[in-house]
Amino acid sequence: MSSREFHIDTARMIIENNRHSLSNVAVDIFEGCVNESVEKTGKFIVAISGGSTPRDMYRMLAEEPYHSRVPWERIHFFWVDERCVSVDDPVSNYGTALKDLLDHVPIPRYQVHPMRGDLPPDEGREEYEGELRSFFNIAHDEVPVFDLVILGIGTDGHTASLFPGHDSLHATERLVCAVKGGNPDLNRLTLTIPVLNNARHVLFIVAGGEKASVVSKVFSGDGDGGDVPAGMVKPREGELIWLLDHDAASLVLRTLKKSAEMPHEAEWHEKEGR
User: Fold this and answer.
1) N or C: which end of the chain has fewer CB within 10 A?
2) Are 166 and 181 in contact (CB under 8 A)?
3) Count of domains in the chain?
4) More confident position, 188 or 268
């Protein structure tokens, strides 16, 4: 098997043949970020997302060799978004993460920082923003720095719970917004674009042919505005990685291969042995 890698503008794009190899690479990236941060600062602070694709990575992390090898006692988990439901609701991102990962690894519970989906949306927003400011010890005009933010993308271009055309896309003074939307159409909490763009590493994990069109929009430049919120995620100083399976990458690959300027726009690498 081979792993294909592009460097396009400030983004690193890694393309895997299938979801299994996609998840393997996602775990490798996660572990690499953990080791880098723990070596530098003694801890690792990550904001994770829900959705079906990252769940494969979470389940792998709960198993050996990662169960024993990852320094769970040094990791703090936050969330990029949450539906305003109870933790035992099947669509709760926190509840899903407990089942897939956190109930199976030796992490102190005080290092797990879920959004309060059980509170009214505005109360949940204020509570989480307060927790972020307290944990990171930042002033009102400062933004936290996560070591890693894990994201997905919807077929409509949303990421976290930042939906096309929503006012939350332009929130510059808030760390967390309360929004309504998505499928199912529920009240939600979400980190804002300034928080996502202040991370040291941002990892998009995307699988499936139904995502091919919107991924292509992101890399064609059509994703810079509010029509494709995921395209607004461009870390100011950090690393941006798009990890795609072949189906999700199919249209952007076709566009790049057809482009006569491809050698100037994108640096191509092919790595054997994945």
Assistant:
1) N
2) yes
3) 1
4) 188
